[in-house]
Design goal:
The protein is mainly alpha-helical and 274 residues long. It has 10 helices and no strands. It is globular. It comes from Gloeophyllum trabeum (strain ATCC 11539 / FP-39264 / Madison 617) (Brown rot fungus).
């Protein structure tokens, strides 16, 4: 395998490691709070549609089996998030009207919040530290990079008997291209309702690691495509996946900026006056 092939494979495996764990922090956060109100239902629903289109496009384009398996996994995780949101709403309604507002799909607002999210906010004010958060993010990224390199090494060791890999396929298949562009548009559009929801909830109940792993996974995925080949036809075949990855990175960075802004403001509001 060439140096470019090795780099592409390593970046691809790091991306896979990111996408394997990307949903876990938010699923755990929802379970911890017994609430899914930090997430926008529109965000998860549109993301689910994007993953379904991505799955269909990957199958039609004959992409790697790992890509197809991951697409199935993403779809299942989207469904889990939606189940959490509606399950916790249902249980909250059974426990009493004080736990939930019955008016809007996005229940929690700044002026009208559930006790669970209110308690979470008080806890975050006491515990939030920018330095501590960056240390946590750094540790998480170190983990996924190590896992990705390990996956690349294992795959290379097992695949030695298979000989040299084929050169990147630049054959265009129009149906997969259409689904690829639709999924890219859905991934980009999904972030918009979440960003607007964050203005209301101040990112309460939202795990920043969901977006840290998403940014890292999209970045390494786009770089792995470019490292594999810079041939115009190959880049054109993967243009929708590149566009979807690159543009969502900017929106995910915006969400992280929201998170740090609101945490810093809330932490500042709890400081004693001098």
């Amino acid at each position: 395998m060439t140096a470019h092939g090795d780099l592409s494979s390593i970046l691809g495996w790091v991306s896979i490691a990111c996408w394997v764990v990307v949903y876990s922090p938010q699923i755990i956060e929802n379970f911890r709070l017994k609430s899914g109100e930090g997430l926008s239902v529109a965000f998860v629903s549109i993301w689910l549609l994007g993953d379904l289109c991505n799955l269909g496009g990957a199958v039609m384009a004959g992409l790697l089996p790992t890509v197809i398996i991951l697409a199935v996994y993403y779809t299942l995780c989207d469904v889990i998030l939606l189940v959490q949101i509606y399950y916790y709403r249902w249980t909250s309604k059974r426990e009493g009207p004080s736990m939930v507002s019955d008016v809007a799909p996005d229940i929690t607002t700044v002026g009208e919040e559930t006790p669970l999210l209110s308690d979470s906010r008080e806890s975050s004010r006491e515990e939030f530290s920018v330095r501590r958060e960056f240390v946590k993010f750094g540790g998480a990224l170190l983990f996924v990079f190590a896992a990705g390199v390990l996956g690349w090494w294992i795959s290379g060791y097992i695949g030695k008997a298979e000989g040299s890999p084929n050169s990147p396929d630049d054959h265009l298949e129009w149906r997969s291209q259409v689904l690829g562009w639709i999924s890219a548009a859905l991934y980009i559009g999904a972030r918009i309702p979440q960003i607007f929801k964050n203005f209301k909830t101040r990112c309460e109940g939202l795990s920043p690691f969901l977006f840290v792993f998403s940014i890292t996974g999209n970045t390494t995925y786009a770089l792995s495509i470019c490292a594999a080949s810079m041939a115009p036809k190959y880049l054109l075949k993967n243009a929708s996946w590149l566009a979807g990855s690159v543009l969502t990175i900017f929106l995910d960075v915006f969400v992280l900026c929201q998170f740090f802004y609101y945490r810093s403001v809330e932490r500042g509001n709890t400081q004693p006056l001098s």
